[in-house]
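> @MW can you paste both from yesterday?
MW: sure, first one:
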Amino acid sequence: MRFLKGRDLTVDFLFLIALCFGLYSIFSISVDYFKLQLVFALVSVFIYILLGIVNKELIRVSLFTGYLVMLILLVYLYIFGDPVRGSSSWVKIGNLALQPSEFIKISIIYGASLILSAKKLNLTKKLLILAILFVPAFLLTVFQPDLGTAFSLLVGVASVVFISTISKKQFLYVILLGILAISVSFSFLQDYQKTRIQSFFNPNSDPLGSGYNVIQSEIAVGSGGVFGKGFKKNTQVTFQYLPESHTDFIFAAVSESFGMAYSFSLILILFGMSYRILKKHVAGGSNIFNSYFAMGVFSLLLLHSVLNIGMNLGLLPITGLPLPFVSYGGSSLLTFSIFLGLLQRFNSDP
């Protein structure tokens, strides 16, 4: 079958297993959220399969059209957006909420891979075109402000630049520009974001305020033990001590319910998927463009996994980045599903 030719069945398997873990995790927290996430999951699977057979030229046109649409929505949010938890990141469409800064990652990583793999352009032109593509989306995301997503955008693009054929000296310039961008974006931090950073270093200084989330997350993870308290017996979630248990702190929530055995299995799935992409698609990509695109997907999947799990364990500051395929939310789930679907399509026959 043409659909199966050239596909990485290991990624297919890990994708489906991750979805199942995510759905069961959300079901253990809220039936209502589970019903909505199930719809997102079914749509994600449909798109994932569809991308395996769609024409590559149609993909190219769709991604650049999608970039323009998402950029317009980011401008709209900057002007008319209503802040939710201090950030204007969501466009409401009926009962659904769309996060343009998530979806625009797809077009930016695709565009960066296409630009940096172009043989007819010199390095200066490549970086100039890449800056024109990247900077508007990055700044508009910073202005929301959503520094977690902006940082992931920066890391995704930087990873593609890293693997491209530029010299170490030239890459150093890119890193310096990235540091400058982060430094400048710090001035746009809201007070609650600055407090998050401070509470990371000393959460007990304000246990009922800025340090509350971290402390409750650590309690949830620690109280779960090896096999957990059991289904629906997670008191941190049931009595609403743990905030955002279905999104930001879902890892802590399931660690309390099902213990270290479950959460470690989840880690193996996500990091196993990352390793598979690195080994099979980055190192063994069928062409330069495919390797560059795979590097962008690998870096974003790994970054989200590390930062989310790290903040749940109290090892990293709270960033608000969702845990791929597990945290509740359609934007993140669809984005990573599209990333993997495109990864499979680009490594298949024309």
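MW: second:
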Amino acid sequence: MSPLRILILFGLFYVLFRLLAGAGSSDKVSERTKPAETPDAAPTQDILMEDPVCRTLIPARRAITWTNKGKILYFCSEECRSQFITSQGDRP
């Protein structure tokens, strides 16, 4: 058998092996790219809250909070919170 025939046969076997091996690995790739499905997982979205003083929207995790009579208020900055407390916070 000539060396050229050996190379051609080796190339054909290699291509056939890759085709057969690749058919089984496509499922594994899709499993790795799927997000983890856990029933207790919380959504990754953050709720936007409106500042009562300047009316800007702030993510709830980054907002400065103040609780008044059981109600949580969200502020974009310490200045807005201080302004709210001095002007409206003491009202019934």
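> thanks! The chain has two domains: 1-34, 48-89.
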